[in-house]
Specification:
amino-acid biosynthesis, histidine biosynthesis, methenyltetrahydrofolate cyclohydrolase activity, alpha/beta, 10 helices, three-stranded parallel beta sheet, about 40% helix, binds 5,10-Methenyltetrahydrofolate, Rossmann fold, six-stranded parallel beta sheet, 11 strands, 2 domains, about 300 residues, NAD(P)-bd_dom_sf, binds magnesium ion, NADP
Length: about 300
C-alpha cells in the first residue's frame, strides 16, 4: 500500500490565490489594504530566509509589507517600543515577531506586548485562551494549516483518535485544541511519554511536531492513518549540501499510512499561506467588516 501524498504546496497556492482575490476586493470596495509588519531581531540565516519568503508572499497577495530588521544586540525595551508603535499604526493590521529571539530578550514579554487584534501568529495568551475556550480569535498559522491539510483527506474528523507528538505553545498545544474542537479524541504525547511507538500506533491521525529528524518510523504508524509531518529539520549531507527532512521517516511511513504530508512541500507552505489569511481576517475585523470567505472560488 502506498499513501496518498497530501500536497501542501498546491493547497497553499490555492489559499494564497483566494486571499489575494479577497484582498483585491477589499481594496476595490472598502479602500482597505491589509498591512503586515514582520520584525526580525538578529541575523540568523534560517530566520532571514523565512522572513524574506514571508515578505515576498505578502506582496504577492497584494498586501503591504513592512520590514523591520534590528541588530542582534537590540534591547528588549527598544523592541517593545517598536511593537507599541506598530500596535497604533493604522496601516499595520498584523504584527509578527520572528522567533527565536536572541537570548537576552524574553519572548513571553514581547508576545504579550502585541495587540491581540494584530497578533497574526496567534501566540498572545489572549488568543491562546480564546482558542482553548472556543471563542473567535486568531489561530496559530502552523496548526491552522495542518487542519486544512487534514480536510483534504477527512470531511469529518468527529470521533477519530488524533495523537499529537509534541507540546509546544506554537504547534502541539494549539493543534490539540483545534482537533478537540473538531470532536477528535486527542492524546498529546512528548519526549517523556512512556512507549511513544505504542501511543502513536493508536492514531487515526498522527501530527508529528517534535523537531527530531525522522523520529517516527514506519512501525509507529497504524495502517491507513493520516500523518501530518510538521518537522522542518535541516540536515547536512556528507558532501556538505543541506536538505530538509521531517520528523517522520517518509518512505517507511508512506508504505503504511493512508495519507501523508511531505517535507518540504507539506506543512511549511501552508504556514505562510495561513499567515496571509490571518492578516486578511485581522484587517477585516479591525475595519468592522465580517470575516472574509476563504473557501476557494469555483474552478480555482
Ligand atoms: N513568529 C514566528 N512565526 C512563525 O510562523 C515562525 C517563526 N516565528 N519562526 C520560525 C518558524 C518556521 N516557520 C516556517 C514557515 C514556512 C516554512 C516553509 O515554507 N517551508 C518550506 C521549505 C522552505 C525551505 O526550503 O527552507 C516547506 O516546508 O516546503 C518553514 C518554516 C515559521 N516560523
Ligand atoms: Mg513541509
Amino acid at each position: 500500500m502506498t499513501a496518498q501524498r497530501i500536497d501542501g504546496k498546491a493547497l497553499a497556492a490555492r489559499l494564497q490565490e483566494t486571499v489575494a482575490a479577497r484582498t483585491a476586493g477589499l481594496g476595490a470596495t472598502q479602500g482597505l489594504r491589509p498591512g503586515l509588519a514582520v520584525v526580525l531581531v538578529g541575523s540568523d540565516p534560517a530566520s532571514q530566509v523565512y522572513v524574506r519568503s514571508k515578505r515576498r508572499r505578502t506582496a504577492e497577495a497584494g498586501m503591504q509589507s513592512f520590514a523591520h530588521e534590528l541588530p542582534e544586540d537590540t534591547g528588549e525595551a527598544a523592541l517593545l517600543e517598536l511593537i507599541a508603535r506598530l500596535n497604533t499604526d493604522p496601516a499595520v493590521h498584523g504584527v509578527l515577531v520572528q522567533l527565536p529571539l536572541p537570548a537576552h530578550i524574553d519572548p513571553m514579554r514581547v508576545l504579550a506586548a502585541i495587540d491581540p487584534a494584530k497578533d497574526v501568529d496567534g501566540f498572545h495568551v489572549v488568543n491562546a485562551g480564546r482558542l482553548a475556550t472556543g471563542q473567535p480569535g486568531l489561530v496559530p498559522c502552523t496548526p491552522l494549516g495542518c487542519m486544512m491539510l487534514l480536510r483534504e483527506r477527512h470531511a469529518d474528523l468527529s470521533g477519530l483518535h488524533a495523537v499529537v507528538l509534541g507540546r509546544s505553545n506554537i504547534v502541539g498545544k494549539p493543534m490539540a485544541q483545534l482537533l478537540l474542537a473538531e470532536n477528535c479524541t486527542v492524546t498529546v504525547v512528548h519526549s517523556r511519554s512512556r512507549d511513544l511507538p505504542m501511543l502513536c500506533r493508536q492514531a487515526d491521525i498522527l501530527v508529528a511536531a517534535v523537531g527530531r529528524p525522522e523520529l517516527v518510523r514506519g512501525d509507529w504508524i497504524r495502517p491507513g492513518a493520516t500523518v501530518i509531518d510538521v518537522g522542518i529539520n535541516r540536515v547536512v549531507r556528507p558532501d556538505g549540501t543541506a536538505r530538509l527532512i521531517g520528523d517522520v521517516a517518509f518512505d517507511e511511513a508512506a508504505a503504511v499510512a493512508g495519507a501523508i504530508t511531505p517535507v518540504p512541500g507539506g506543512v511549511g507552505p501552508m504556514t505562510i499561506a495561513c499567515l496571509l489569511a490571518n492578516t486578511l481576517i485581522a484587517s477585516c475585523r479591525q475595519a468592522g467588516l465580517p470575516d472574509p470567505d476563504l473557501t476557494p472560488a469555483p474552478g480555482a
